[in-house]
């Protein structure tokens, strides 16, 4: 599967994102009760933030998933771990579908990680999914993440995990 990326447009993409983040299968995104204007506002804030970015992953030119990356020294994990130079935080969301495609989500996280590591300044990707999100823990492990331990964020108990460029390359070429 081949994916491309484009910057998310909070105004044009809000309706699509709203359908993705409020779906019951996106419960870990914590926007279940969001109204369309809430989603638009949240992504306008990200668009204006120099330390947080949102991209749409495209498949055949059509939106297929959401990717966010952030500087953990300034967002999400401030005070919860000791960031290193070259750390980048990541979130991704594949929308719910009535016709699941085997291997799709793994292809998405692999593409997201490859995109992040295209930047030579990125040495390590940091994630902090909910401790109960077993499906994403397995996906993270499949692309080379190693769990460091649990942390308490304001909104959830999270599993802090890291993946270096070398761990990623080894995992996806194995």
User: How many angstroms does the end-to-end distance come to?
Assistant: 18 Å
The assembly state of the depicted protein chains is: single chain
Assess the beta-strand content as a share of residues.
25-35%
Which value, in Å, is the CA radius of gyration?
15 Å
Residue windows where pLDDT falls under 50 for at least 5 positions: none
Keywords:
174 residues; alpha+beta; 7-stranded mixed sheet; 7 strands; globular
Protein model, in words:
The protein has 174 residues and is α+β, with helices and mostly antiparallel strands. 32% of the residues lie in helices and 27% in strands. The chain has five helices and seven strands. The protein has helices spanning 10-21, 36-47, 104-117, 134-142, 165-173, and strands spanning 4-7, 52-59, 62-70, 87-93, 124-127, 146-152, 157-164. Strands 1-2-3-4-5-7-6 form a seven-stranded mixed sheet, with helices on both faces. Strand 6 and strand 7 form a beta hairpin. Helix 1 packs across helix 2 (36-47). It is globular and about 35 Å long. It starts with a strand and ends with a helix. The model has no long low-confidence stretch (mean pLDDT 92).
Helices and strands, with pairings:
Layout: E1 4-7, H1 10-21, H2 36-47, E2 52-59, E3 62-70, E4 87-93, H3 104-117, E5 124-127, H4 134-142, E6 146-152, E7 157-164, H5 165-173
Parallel strand pairs: 4-5
Antiparallel strand pairs: 1-2, 2-3, 3-4, 5-7, 6-7
Outline of the structure:
The protein has 174 residues and is an alpha+beta fold.
């Amino acid at each position: 599967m081949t994916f491309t990326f484009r910057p998310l447009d909070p105004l044009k993409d809000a309706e699509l994102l709203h359908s993705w983040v409020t779906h019951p299968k996106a419960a870990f995104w914590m926007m279940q009760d969001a109204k369309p204007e809430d989603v638009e506002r949240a992504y306008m804030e990200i668009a204006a933030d120099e330390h947080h970015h949102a991209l749409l992953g495209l498949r055949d030119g059509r939106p297929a998933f959401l990717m966010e990356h952030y500087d953990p020294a300034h967002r999400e994990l401030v005070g919860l771990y000791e960031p290193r130079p070259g750390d980048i935080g990541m979130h991704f969301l594949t929308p719910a579908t009535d016709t699941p495609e085997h291997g799709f989500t793994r292809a998405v996280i692999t593409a997201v990680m490859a995109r992040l590591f295209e930047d030579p300044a990125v040495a390590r990707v940091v994630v902090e999914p909910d401790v109960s999100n077993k499906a994403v823990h397995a996906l993270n492990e499949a692309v080379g993440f190693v769990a460091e331990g649990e942390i308490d964020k304001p909104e959830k108990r999270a599993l802090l995990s890291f993946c270096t460029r070398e761990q990623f390359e080894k995992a996806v070429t194995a």
